[in-house]
Amino acid sequence: MEGMDFSAMRETMVQKGVEENTLARVIRTVDDMEQQGLLKQTNNYAAYSIIGVGAVLFFVGAIVTIASYINYGGAGLLWYGAIILGISMFIGGLKALQR
Q1: Residues 33-86: pLDDT tens digits?
Q2: Could you count the other beta carbons within 10 Å of the beta carbon of residue 90?
Q3: Is the C-alpha dihedral spanning 30, 33, 39, 44 positive or negative?
Q4: Considering only CA atoms, which of 38, 81, 82, 75 is closest in space to residue 60?
Q5: What is the largest CA-CA distance in the chain?
Q6: Alpha-carbon distance 69 to 93, whole Å?
Q7: Is 57 in contact with 82 (CB distance < 8 Å)?
Q8: Model pTM?
Q9: Of 6, 30, 44, 56, which one is least surrounded by beta carbons within 10 A?
């Protein structure tokens, strides 16, 4: 029955003699599973976006920090805010993927 819409599933099950209350439970269960799959896809997309933004922030902060350290001979500018935020977002995105 994979790939069938709900009306085709219902029709096939009615032809096989499945009771109405059982039929309703099966359709509801399949619908719930479909909704959970769509929600998981949406959450994964958001998690990957957070991971990407976190990685960019970390690398920008690290590059600016290293470049300013090199250019100013040890008295460089430390972009710790971008680095810490980038690491935090990256870890948060990874944790969101595990859920």
Answers
A1: 888 888 788 888 999 999 999 999 999 999 998 888 888 777 677 888 899 999
A2: 19
A3: negative
A4: 82
A5: 83
A6: 30
A7: yes
A8: 0.64
A9: 6
